[in-house]
């Protein structure tokens, strides 16, 4: 679909919500998230889009919460850098420019976390996942490392947009095991890539996916996907309820099923094309431009 067919106020009708929870087994919430919607940049949102990201500090490693916060701080600095460039040049970055900049900031975050780890022995070998999405008119730019995930729901079809950088996923890709075997495999949580660990980051998954009005996106830590099946995710995400109710229900499902890990969920509702009378119902949204860890639902 051509971006020329998207109304100028399309971003004003995008709805989103986030919720994070410590779960039932962990002493610390090592998940972090960040949302930047250009609300402090005037017309920036039309050129730069909206950015959403989830990071999950490595469980069992000291400083996982610090690593995930550093990742979200770093990805936010990328967005602020793009705002600065936009204010100077007043033009919309291409999707290729977004991809190049995101890949670069992922490598910088990786290095910054490693330097922090080496400077403090109590933070030895800390690391984190990071999954980020920049939502533009008609497209979404993705960058990802680790086993947090980004999904897109269109109609009743749920598509996972990011690969898991895990040992078991490599075995699946090589035909040595099936998806059905993952749940019981003793190494199912072993990552092959993360930010900030002793081994420098090799590659960053990057992609550009089409966006249509009505698409719903889900960004989440593995505290959701390890506890809740794809079938249940489709049922909850496909509900016509407001994103605030959807994130609540997804987190509740994870807790009901054992809550073995921290769980963080962001749901983004791509704006529908509505008639003039209905449009007013969705024209108001709360401006969010923050990074935090809490147990509140925000929309």
Low-confidence stretches: 274-299
Outline, from the CA principal axes? globular
Mean of residue pLDDT values: 84
Work out the number of β strands: 11
Could you explain the architecture of this structure?
The strands form two sheets. The protein has a six-stranded antiparallel sheet with strand order 8-5-4-3-2-11. The protein has eight helices and eleven strands. The model is unreliable at 274-299 (pLDDT under 50). The longest helix has 26 residues, at 64-89. A hairpin with a 2-residue loop joins strand 6 and strand 7 (157-160). The protein has helices spanning 44-48, 64-89, 95-119, 167-173, 222-225, 230-237, 243-256, 276-282, and strands at 15-21, 31-36, 50-56, 130-136, 139-145, 149-154, 157-160, 205-210, 216-220, 263-269, 289-292.
Q: What labels would you give this structure?
A:
32% helix; alpha+beta; globular; Phosphatase 2c, domain 1; 22% strand; 299 residues; 11 strands; five-stranded antiparallel beta sheet; 8 helices
Briefly summarize what is shown:
This protein has 299 residues and is of the alpha+beta class.
How is this fold's topology laid out?
Layout: E1 15-21, E2 31-36, H1 44-48, E3 50-56, H2 64-89, H3 95-119, E4 130-136, E5 139-145, E6 149-154, E7 157-160, H4 167-173, E8 205-210, E9 216-220, H5 222-225, H6 230-237, H7 243-256, E10 263-269, H8 276-282, E11 289-292
Antiparallel strand pairs: 1-10, 2-3, 2-11, 3-4, 4-5, 5-8, 6-7, 6-9, 9-10
Helix pairs in contact: 2-3
